[in-house]
Amino acid sequence: MSYTVKNQARQELNLVIDVLMLAGAILLQSGAEVHRVEDTMIRIAHSQGIIDANVLAIPAAIFFSIDHTNISRMKRIVTSSYDMQKVCDVNQVSRSLVSKDMTLTEAYEALKAIKCQKPPYTKVQISLAAIVAAPFFTIMFGGTALDALCAAFATALAFPLSLLFERYVGIDFVTTFAGALVFSLTSYLLSKYTALPINPNLINAGAVMPFVPGITLTNGVRDLMTNHLNTGMTKIFQTVLIILSLGAGTTVALLIVG
What we know:
single chain, 258 residues, mainly alpha, 3-stranded antiparallel beta sheet, 3 strands, 71% helix
């Protein structure tokens, strides 16, 4: 009888850890800030009676342990993408679990379903959104309607290519460099070899905006503000690297045309 009780308690503890680790992994992979990841996992642990829980999340992994025990878990985060819908869904599961509106088994099944959700937008929809957004940034920076049309054209060439590089190369620096090279070449060639009264710099200013890593920068600042210095600096450095790659692509295009 005692063995059965201990076995059930061990299984329940393993399920609690499975749930909080899965929740944390989905959040981190979907672009949530580290503070949210750790706070969600701690809240789930506390709701199940695990008070002495320790959680450490970094962009590449999640660590969980319980004080005064030999229980610990680690989850390696290999790939990540930004999906705010998954972040919201995991938050809702966490709230329902903490308020006792959902059992551990139900929460685990819900999280597995969330993990398997397809991205809310296709690559074609993302490209169309970038093409539509770029001209408005050009106008906002003082460009003409013709500059805006050229920005849409340059983005239509560059953004799908960058998504293709992202799929087969998977290196952010290369992806953004390729995109910047294409839209900059397009703007400079249009300016140099056509009689159109356009400003290539304003075209580039609009076309570059879909490539700017706004979520990464925002999360980095928020992590710094919540004293997650290592993670915050990592994301800030990642943002700077992407911005440098955009500048490098534009510079190479200028050298080619000039």
